[in-house]
């Protein structure tokens, strides 16, 4: 197997080869400290503030996909084969500002300016992808950017008007389809395994067999996908990591397939692409998808990482448990598939054998008539970790509950089904009285903890309320359950 001992990416239109780099150096550190490109800022170093936003390009279906990411938690070696665009790139050769920057100036969208490059890069990502963004698109694109002094209204105004300006001398939207750029990226695409010697070592295989072999040979190694969990172990917990095996170049893990009445999502598919496929089939999950981190977090992070990390407050697991999702596991010489609920053995304990990894999740499509939803409860609407998250899937037969699956995150040490509540509901009429009668069973299913996000009592009360909300929203008569809907009434 061909091996490469350096990484290469495109910056300022040139191929940059980097040798001798520690595997956990972040893109932000490299830009600021090695290259002196200090336009990209460090605020939180944990993906929360957006000051470090840059845009990454990679070939996808005949064009270049440009997406915003947080450079503070993304390890530099994972940029191999990609194009990096920083705020310094936006200015034209004659010094003219890019429309995004000019709109920010014209709408007085900056005061101290610390957050501004991050906002500009998030808007620039939107500019490249949307010809006529609506206000909601702008608000969504900026949900991972914090500003402490200007206030958001002028910044949002700038985003809404950035398309009013003439096409820029550099970085017009057509760049995504520029053949020369596309070919340049294809020429450096990772087709061979990258193996770096710094730190405890880093390998980025390109096939699933090679990944399985590397995992078998190095059972102490840590798999790295988008790094939106792992990155923080370095930037916040200052941990020394073991050898890293990066999954992001493994072609077999990057596909989304639909067939056999299920959607199969490879473990290295980004949350952005995974949720796009899921929401196409389950439109009721659109809000959950939008409230998962922020666009830069979803552009780097993967569904496989969310499942494998198995945080008790991870947002994808409750709905997947309610839908009966299975996880495909792989290791050298074998594969197996298990229901997601069997994958979680205890707090941070998963049913993975040494050298085994998550290959994909299979999400079954629902039978017609199923009533299904998932609700996330957190202190902020955007970019916040859940206090709890509930999911409900009910199949009715002649007005009775024939089958029901309910799951919560934030209520136990693992994301977990409410088996006692399900039993209390099965066979009952689809009625408010049946829901109310089943509420006490939630206390048999869960003994939630109190922590900084919520008290145990709050969690239990809200878990019960969410079941009633689900009934209210699915009982035929539309009931407004959101503040915005109430305002409209
Ligand atoms: C600012 C911010 C906001 C966030 N918001 C949310 C949120 O709203 N909801 C939420 O649920 N999470 C949230 N997260 C957490 C994180 O984004 C998710 O858990 C994400 O899905 C992790 O995916 P990743 O690809 O980045 O995983 P990584 O960080 O690369 O890996 C996570 C874990 O999974 C393991 N792993 C990765 N791939 C595999 C594989 N194929 N097989 C076996 N093990 C594997 C790794 O070894 C590691 O233990 C947030 C994180 C940040 C930084
Ligand atoms: S520095 Fe705050 S998101 Fe990166
Ligand atoms: S302009 Fe000061 S933080 Fe946004």
Question: What secondary-structure arrangement, pairings included, does this model have?
Answer:
Blueprint: E1 3-4, E2 7-11, E3 14-18, H1 27-34, E4 53-60, E5 63-70, E6 83-85, H2 99-106, H3 116-129, H4 135-141, H5 152-161, H6 179-187, E7 193-196, E8 202-204, H7 208-217, E9 222-224, H8 230-235, E10 244-246, E11 256-259, E12 262-266, H9 271-281, H10 286-290, H11 295-300, H12 303-309, H13 316-323, E13 326-331, E14 334-339, H14 340-343, E15 344-346, E16 349-350, E17 357-364, E18 371-377, E19 388-397, E20 400-409, E21 416-417, H15 419-425, H16 432-438, H17 441-445, H18 456-473, H19 483-488
This protein binds flavin-adenine dinucleotide and FE2/S2 (inorganic) cluster (FES) (2 copies).
Descriptive report:
The protein has helices spanning 27-34, 99-106, 116-129, 135-141, 152-161, 179-187, 208-217, 230-235, 271-281, 286-290, 295-300, 303-309, 316-323, 340-343, 419-425, 432-438, 441-445, 456-473, 483-488, and strands at residues 3-4, 7-11, 14-18, 53-60, 63-70, 83-85, 193-196, 202-204, 222-224, 244-246, 256-259, 262-266, 326-331, 334-339, 344-346, 349-350, 357-364, 371-377, 388-397, 400-409, 416-417. A five-stranded mixed beta sheet has the order 1-7-8-10-9, with helices on one face. It has a five-stranded mixed beta sheet with strand order 3-2-6-4-5. Strands 11-12-17-13-14 form a five-stranded antiparallel beta sheet. Helices cover 32% and strands 22% of the residues. The chain has three domains: 3-88 and 178-246, Ubiquitin-like (UB roll); 91-170, DNA polymerase, domain 1 (Orthogonal Bundle), CATH 1.10.150; 375-484, Enolase-like, domain 1 (2-Layer Sandwich). The protein has 489 residues and is of the alpha+beta class. Bound molecules: flavin-adenine dinucleotide and FE2/S2 (inorganic) cluster (2 copies). Residues 46-48, 222-230, 232, 247, 267, 271, 292-293, 297, 300-302, 304-306, 308-309, 314-315, 357-358, 385 line the site of flavin-adenine dinucleotide.
